[in-house]
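Action item from last week, closing it out:
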Amino acid sequence: MASALKTIAVLTSGGDAPGMNAAIRAVVREGIANGCKVKGIRRGYAGLLQEEIVDMDAHSVSDIISRGGTILQTARCLEFMQEEYQKKAADICRKHGIEGVVVIGGDGSYKGAMNLVKHGINTVALPGTIDLDIGCTDYTIGFDTAVNTAMEAIDKVRDTSTSHERCSIIEVMGRGAGYIALWCGIANGAEDVLLPETYDYDEQALVNHIIESRKRGKQHHIIVNAEGIGHSTSMAKRIEAATGIETRATILGHMQRGGSPTAKDRVYASTMGAIAADLLAEGKTNQVISHRGGKFVYDDIETALAMKKELDPYQVKICRDLGNAYYKV
């Protein structure tokens, strides 16, 4: 299509997520197909303020679709919350001929994109976070890979936990949201899953469940603990003291952010990146791309930020039922 904009740029902001590179590649190549020049902004909004801006072409994004992380790197930028730095960023965009920016990140990155719009720069945002905690979308770039990484790690911990007849607490990421923990709880068949949204902090009930399971002949006990609850190491010590069963804590940490993205993260991120480039080519701005109800859709940023999201109560129920977990919904 003939583009309404001559030059666009792409940046990644906040935490990295597998699939960001697929999205960057799609923005660059679809932008070129639309007749745009495309630039990359390194290190997110912090890099924009430092004018870390590079020209990109089709070769710039060759062989990156299978790589985790982000080739543009990322950073958090508290300065960008201030009006003077928002205006400075918009002026820098104009200095480099940038008329539109694709922002890949989470809710905080969306707010930054909205502030660029306020100062005259067209923006389209993509949901890049492993946490799946963005209200407007059923899918976020990197979640599928992160869940698969955690699932495979928990399977391995279960093997050794069974060999030693241990209780294992495995802490997964997600900040204040329990989506990774919930999905792993179902996928790994965990005996207990501790979610920030539902956990009542009744540790005695957890201890009782472990003891009862051991009496029934269970050789291991897997507890998936969400990052939003945390304190897995101290919890393991308390449980071991209360049950007499050797208990170990494993914190998976940032391994969940890395690794080659799954097919779903590559395809969905590529589709979202291409849609973003097309929207900018059409002259649209202040938009967030989402996957909702089985379709790729877009909303204005204010509407997207106002949308709320909760764990699927039926998934929470079956996680409890299928794993015989103790916690109450």
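Closing note: The longest strand covers residues 7-12.
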